[in-house]
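It is worth pausing here to work through a concrete case rather than discussing structure prediction in the abstract. The textbook approach is simple: state the sequence, then state the predicted structure, then interpret. We follow exactly that order.
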Amino acid sequence: MTAAFARTADPWKDTDVIDARAPRTNQAIVGILSLVAFLTGWWPILGLLALQLAIGLRFGRRWCLPCLFYFDVLQPRFGEGPIEDSRPPRFANTVGVIFLGSATLAHALGYVTIGWGLAVIVAALALLAATTGLCVGCEIYRIGARIRGIRPGSIKHVDLAEIGAAGRSGEVVVQFTHPLCTDCHTLERELVAAGRDVFTVDVSRRPELARKYGVALVPTAVAVAPGGVVTARIA
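Step two, the predicted structure:
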């Protein structure tokens, strides 16, 4: 690592967030190797990919080979990318384990067409995510959160006293944030520049408030009237 390189998020300790380029590197590797398996006909590659993803999910990033490659080789050379919530890409990896594991099992049982069909789906979605940033597994996670009622739009009332905004005579913006979230900092700067009165809730320090208001993703921001009634969803 070069002396000039500095991280805002430690990849081994700040596991509730992740450099957005790390999942895309992992997706590129999974997509390319799944495609290689399909083109060469060597289906055990699918099982090895499923095993590697499962090990990383179970034991952490230090056991994830693509993670080690990104954080120890690529990130020090190209710098840190945007920091985002790690839960959506983690869920996407879980979906990858299911599909790759099912493909491996299908091949082992002789259902070759099903096995390759699942492999092609994994390759296509992983390469799509790696090249465009559109992660289908991540979107499924977000949709699932909304189905469970965990969404910014479901916040109807905020207790201004517990976030330090009691007694305000005008409308305030309550933003649920994380100190290592790039989008959170950007949104806060934009709101302040627009003249909004912003009160932040750090979900890493106040997880009970995140649970109380059903905040699954940050940044989440709502406009709140003096009485605590939410008047608009901002982010």
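Step three, interpretation. Residues 152-233 form a domain with the Glutaredoxin fold (CATH 3.40.30.10). The CA atoms of residues 13 and 61 lie 10 Å apart.
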